[in-house]
Q: What sequence folds into this?
């Protein structure tokens, strides 16, 4: 199973892949380049839009229409016309920016923060925005990264990367609040967990920063089930498409031999299942 390189420029930090299952489109961001992308897997068309501040994550609204988080605010974007309209802001400090996010089935926008341009220990937060109001649901984070819901949304998994753990929170679907339950997964190697997604069986697929791989975990037992290597060190996030295959974003490393960091990859898991 060889990851296919789908997209690669000189970007430093690709992140936040999210798949529109209804319209078969992939969205992702280049955080420091302040770019948001829309990729059509069928036509191979890639559209992009540049912002005035770092972008972090994307929430799907409709056909080629999304909500994009940037440090300067949240924008409604129409990739049909390549236009952006300011919608709202969640107030954060000047030395912070938004990072990974997710949306629940009620439309609540959940998003974490981290220090910018430098990492600041324990100053980050995770916010919940709903119908014009926002609140803080998790505090004292450092690098808020992966977020994933179980299918019934009763559990929210969350990664604060420097902890090298995946935290399990009980999620209240009525008011969007969380209650810490336990740490579901602990990383013992040299890599750190970054972004993640969850499959239909409730298994977590975690991008490993510094590990050059995406790993599959059972959050109920905390056991690693599988590992897929990629040709670069810093893996940032992943998401599933309509075929159950993985799109994976990556970032550049300091290694002179890192020719693929900052690329977007595709891993055909469906072929692996066919051969099992």
A:
């Amino acid at each position: 199973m060889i990851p296919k390189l789908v997209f690669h420029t000189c970007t430093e930090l690709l992140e936040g892949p999210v798949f529109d299952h209804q319209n078969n489109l992939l969205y992702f961001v280049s955080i420091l380049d302040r770019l948001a992308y829309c990729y059509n897997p069928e036509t191979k068309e890639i559209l992009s839009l540049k912002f005035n501040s770092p972008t972090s994550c994307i929430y799907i609204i409709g056909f080629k229409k999304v909500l994009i988080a940037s440090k300067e605010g949240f924008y409604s974007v129409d990739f049909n016309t390549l236009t952006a309209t300011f919608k709202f802001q969640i107030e954060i400090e000047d030395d912070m920016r938004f990072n990974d996010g997710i949306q629940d089935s009620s439309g609540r926008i959940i998003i974490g923060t981290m220090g910018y341009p430098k990492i600041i220990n324990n100053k980050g937060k995770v916010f919940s925005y709903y119908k014009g109001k926002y609140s803080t649901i998790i505090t004292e984070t450092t690098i808020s990264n992966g977020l994933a819901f179980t299918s019934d949304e009763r559990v929210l998994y969350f990664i604060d990367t420097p902890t090298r753990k995946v935290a399990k929170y009980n999620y209240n679907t009525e008011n969007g609040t969380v209650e810490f339950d336990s740490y579901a997964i602990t990383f013992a190697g040299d890599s750190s967990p970054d972004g993640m997604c969850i499959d239909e069986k409730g298994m977590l697929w975690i991008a490993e920063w510094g590990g050059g791989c995406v790993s599959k975990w059972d959050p109920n037992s905390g056991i690693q089930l599988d590992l897929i290597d990629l040709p670069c060190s810093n893996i940032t996030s992943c998401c599933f498409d309509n075929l159950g295959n993985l799109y994976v974003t990556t970032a550049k490393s300091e290694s002179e031999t890192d020719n693929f960091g900052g690329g977007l990859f595709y891993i055909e898991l469906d072929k692996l299942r066919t051969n099992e």
Observations:
- The chain has a mean pLDDT of 95.
- The longest strand covers residues 133-141.
